[in-house]
Amino acid sequence: MVLECAALFINSNYAIDAKLNPTKDAIAIEGSDSPYTNIIAIRKGDENRKEIKELVEVLHSKEIQDFIKKEYKGAVLPVSE
Question: What is the domain partition of the chain in residue ranges?
């Protein structure tokens, strides 16, 4: 699809797929305090499941945070809390 427009609002993942760098090619970009963040939502009662705790631990790990920072160069921010 070829799209012609003067300006466009898109998620970073679409920009990355289009070989754009959202932190360099964007006219404006949300800050880290944006209320529109991705979250892991868990049903009440499932928060203590082993696999859920493991997922949260992995997402908080230094290895994953370093990977996200290197791979996405600021366009995607790692989980911090």
Answer: 12-72
Q: For residue 46, what are the contacts with CB-CB under 8 A and spacing of at least 6?
A: 52
Nearest to 78 by CA among 53, 19, 64, 42: 64
Residue 37 Cα distances to 2, 3, 7, angstroms: 29, 27, 23
Give residue-wise pLDDT tens across range 3-56.
788 888 888 888 888 888 888 898 988 877 878 777 889 999 999 999 999 999
Q: What is the pTM of this model?
A: 0.64
Query: Cβ-count burial of 53 within 10 angstroms (0-12 exposed, 13-18 middle, 19+ buried)?
Result: exposed
The tokens describing 34, both together, are: 């944006």
